């Protein structure tokens, strides 16, 4: 079950990350631009029902590009190491821990690595309560040295992982 979830998430992520994807609408702002998800095209492409909006949930997705002044391998290292990951966002990410390892490759590229993480986020506002999240983090080398890392929430999935 977990494997199917992460494979589906990876497939969706690769499609959504395509620069020329028609699933995104460009929005201009003062200091540049970003993109928002075209929900109608997304629903048409990936299916699914609209029951989340019926019970009061709201879906939002944006994407933007930025240059990170760090070697790509180091970025992957930070994201796959729970302790380092927590240090990346000290003002928001209060804690992070690995609770289960499904697969951890012996090579250095993390290809196929999959582990369950629990994080607690705290925002600098009393209006937003702290939140705990449990998710599977999955890393896959997809092509020509490109690496995809996806997080799949387990908060609404029943069972023991």
Question: Can you give a write-up of this model?
Answer:
By secondary structure, this protein is of the alpha+beta class. It folds into two domains: 1-66, no CATH class; 68-156, no CATH class. Helix content is 27%, strand content 34%. The protein has five helices and seven strands. Helix 4 crosses helix 5. The longest helix is centred in the N-terminal third of the chain and has 16 residues, at 2-17. The radius of gyration is 17 Å and the shape is globular. This is START domain-containing protein. InterPro entries: HD-Zip_IV (IPR042160), START_lipid-bd_dom (IPR002913). It comes from Triticum urartu (Red wild einkorn). GO terms for molecular function: DNA binding; lipid binding.
Task: Write a compact overview of the structure shown.
The protein is an alpha+beta fold.
Give the key terms:
161 residues, alpha+beta, four-stranded antiparallel beta sheet, three-stranded antiparallel beta sheet
Task: State the share of residues found in helices, binned by percent.
Answer: 25-40%
User: Largest sheet, described in full?
Assistant: 4 strands, antiparallel
Strand and helix order? HEEHHEHHEEEE
In one word, what is the shape?
globular
Number of strands: 7
Strand order within the widest sheet?
A: 4-5-6-7
| Tally of DSSP helical segments | 5
Any idea what the radius of gyration is? 17 Å
| N-to-C span | 10 Å
Low-pLDDT segments, ≥5 res: none
> Which structural category fits the helices and strands?
alpha+beta
Strand content: 25-35%
Provide the domain count.
2
Mean pLDDT: 85
